[in-house]
């Protein structure tokens, strides 16, 4: 990581799950119900954290095979739909972080490998939709993270200058890879980098900046307002 203090961003793209909201338990529960439907062994929470990073359309064909993955997709979506809003919990400091960026005039978007419809329903449920210029989920763009396509979609008509100081904030190796693919500053939130078991060539990836939680990052963002 760099020893220099990060420059104030002109735009910030956030991952969603376990960056702004706590959803590991929900993802694990829906996955394990799906595994049980298909006679597969279930995963512990730690296994889920290391094996989930890519979008469903990229990971399920590997998990379930080309002949069964679409049926598994339908099973997972059914289970997830039944529980995701009632278990949705913002991470501590996430709302304050979004407020601080908005107050600084920073463009904010979301790029997630969660299904786009679920993603936007969760943002609406939390009443966070007005914070974001665009909310882009899995299958909304031609390719999902770590490809650059969903970031370009989330940035919309943003000027080239916003790309010059763009942050990508997430919790997984896929988020770091995506940041590299668009030339963004990679910022990690959380105790550890997740998703190593769901990606290749990830062992050497590290973020430009690492913050323990949203509260730590919001203190940095609020300091920018004193010099802007």
TrEMBL record:
Its family remark reads: Belongs to the HAD-like hydrolase superfamily. CbbY/CbbZ/Gph/YieH family.
What is the protein's given name?
Answer: phosphoglycolate phosphatase
Catalytic activity from the UniProt record: 2-phosphoglycolate + H2O = glycolate + phosphate
* Tree of life domain: Bacteria
Record bears the keyword Oxidoreductase: no
Q: What's a single GO CC term here?
A: cytosol
Q: Which InterPro entries match?
A: HAD-like_hydrolase_sf (IPR050155), HAD-like_sf (IPR036412), HAD_2 (IPR041492), HAD_sf (IPR023214)
Q: Does the keyword Flavoprotein apply?
A: no
Q: Which organism is it from?
A: Thalassospira profundimaris
Under Pfam families, the record lists:
HAD_2
EC numbers on record: 3.1.3.18
Copy the pathway line from the protein's UniProt record.
Organic acid metabolism; glycolate biosynthesis; glycolate from 2-phosphoglycolate: step 1/1
Q: Name one GO molecular function term.
A: phosphoglycolate phosphatase activity
Q: Which GO biological process annotations does it have? A: DNA repair
Q: Which UniProt keywords apply?
A: Hydrolase
